[in-house]
């Protein structure tokens, strides 16, 4: 019975840590790159696509585990009060909830990141060598997002690391694996996603603002404050939509402009956030809309890539 309880706790903690619903953030750029590759060659090897996705999901789990370990160690997770906990706040709270110990979290990080490394190595050796350095750079940014000595998320570089990884890097990595071409255009097409995923990260930092400040997590929202942060939030949307227009103009494929259909939702999200800085339940509607915008824009970009 005790063994069953232990296994149940570990399994529950693992899935809370893995949080598959957030994998959409990495799935979208991978599928856009796949659509681009299909448009180019009129064929895609879905076995390699699946293997690459598994590798990326393992990195996601490992990154979450590292973040969980470091945020508990620094006290950030412990500073989050009960009234501030919500589906959009940072961290998975597995250690706080007693689902996993710090040692178990560290072991999960080591195992999943090692598995991702060997998958990337296999792809590089058998399929496409350029995947190795792209994957290593992405893995480096994921691991040291929270982990010392770099601690990007604690030193004001977390936003840039997330944007680079979930935009140009993933796009270029998947595209080169499928086509064998290291194409800068694939990275360029990833720019709108980079700005939108930073917007997701940015708005999700608001509920954890006080806890991050106490725990020494000096992200840019903590540095400039909530009110000024709203201007950055709006600017991220502007940059995303301008880059979508730039991609359409540069490529001559005006189907990319389908991504602009989310502009009205973005305007709503900025207004909701601006009017509810001190009303967290209402403010969270902006968080939900930001994730929706990322998803809908991603689907529009997949369609545009196929229709080019």
UniProtKB/TrEMBL annotation:
For this record, the Gene Ontology CC terms, alphabetical, are: membrane
Molecular function (GO) terms listed? prenyltransferase activity
* Segments traversing the membrane: 21-38, 44-62, 102-125, 131-148, 160-178, 184-204, 230-249, 255-274, 286-307
To which pathway does this protein belong?
Answer: Quinol/quinone metabolism; menaquinone biosynthesis
List GO BP terms, alphabetically: menaquinone biosynthetic process; vitamin K biosynthetic process
Q: Sorted alphabetically, which Pfam families does this protein's record hold?
A: UbiA
- Bilayer topology term: Multi-pass membrane protein
Coiled-coil features, chain-numbered ranges: none
Its domain of life reads Bacteria
Recorded hits in InterPro entries, A to Z, give: UbiA_prenyltransferase, UbiA_sf, UBIAD1
Which compartment or compartments is the protein found in?
Answer: Membrane
Alphabetically ordered keywords of this record: Membrane, Menaquinone biosynthesis, Transferase, Transmembrane, Transmembrane helix
| Leader sequence residues | none
What protein name is recorded for this chain? 1,4-dihydroxy-2-naphthoate octaprenyltransferase
- Species source reads Paenibacillus montaniterrae
């Amino acid at each position: 019975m005790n063994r069953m309880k232990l296994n149940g706790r570990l399994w529950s903690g693992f899935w809370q840590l893995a949080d598959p619903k957030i994998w959409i953030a990495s799935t979208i750029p991978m599928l856009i790159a796949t659509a681009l590759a299909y448009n180019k060659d009129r064929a895609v090897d879905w076995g390699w696509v699946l293997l690459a996705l598994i590798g990326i999901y393992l990195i996601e789990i490992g990154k979450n585990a590292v973040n969980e370990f470091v945020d508990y160690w620094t006290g950030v997770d412990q500073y989050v009060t009960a009234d501030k906990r919500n589906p959009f706040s940072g961290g998975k709270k597995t250690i706080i909830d007693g689902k996993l110990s710090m040692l178990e979290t560290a072991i999960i990080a080591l195992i999943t990141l090692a598995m991702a490394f060997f998958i990337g190595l296999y792809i590089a050796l058998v399929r496409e060598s350029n995947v190795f350095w792209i994957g290593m750079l992405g893995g480096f940014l994921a691991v040291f997002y929270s982990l010392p000595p770099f601690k990007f998320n604690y030193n004001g570089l977390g936003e840039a690391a997330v944007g680079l990884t979930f935009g140009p890097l993933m796009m270029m990595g998947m595209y080169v694996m499928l086509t064998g071409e290291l194409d800068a255009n694939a990275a360029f097409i990833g720019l709108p996603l980079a700005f939108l995923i930073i917007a997701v990260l940015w708005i999700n930092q608001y509920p954890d603002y006080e806890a991050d400040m106490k725990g020494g997590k000096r992200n840019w929202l903590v540095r400039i404050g909530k009110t000024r942060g709203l201007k950055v939030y709006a600017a991220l949307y502007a940059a995303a939509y301008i880059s979508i227009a730039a991609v359409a103009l540069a490529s001559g494929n005006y189907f990319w402009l389908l991504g602009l259909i989310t502009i009205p939702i973005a305007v709503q999200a900025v207004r909701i956030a601006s009017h509810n800085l001190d009303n967290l339940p209402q403010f969270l509607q902006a968080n939900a809309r930001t994730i929706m915008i990322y998803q809908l824009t991603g689907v529009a970009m997949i369609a545009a890539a196929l229709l080019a």
